[in-house]
Specification:
With 130 residues, the chain is mainly α. It has one domain: 3-Layer(aba) Sandwich (Rossmann fold), CATH 3.40.50. 42% of the residues lie in helices and 8% in strands. The protein has a two-stranded parallel sheet. α1 links the parallel β1 and β2. It is elongated and about 55 Å long. The two termini are 18 Å apart.
Amino acid sequence: MLSIASDSAVVTPVEMVHHGVTKTAQPAVTRGFAKAAAGTGVTVNSVPAGPNPHRRGVEDFVAELVGDDLPWDEAQRRFMRGHRPQSLLERHIEPEEIANMVAYLSSDLASATTGGAVRVDGGYIDAILP
């Protein structure tokens, strides 16, 4: 079992408190389900993604904060510098990058990975452990 979580569960941006509150419960629920599935061979993980996986709504959100007259690459750079400066990747996560982690966690290669929050966040969450 997999759930797509959010970096906002750990690093809640001031302009997205409502989102952070809803996402904070997800890793705890995932861990609880993993404990309930112990010994069954079923793995349960969450994939905290972010900052703001790149999609149309995110482009609109970024434009609201940095101006809508900029090309995406420049708007993204300004947003990351001004609103997500702790990102080590310094760009938004692409949906395909999240899908790659989901594919891995859904495969037999991840058979010993359970109860975790396996991040696809470009180093945004300031922690050395996943």
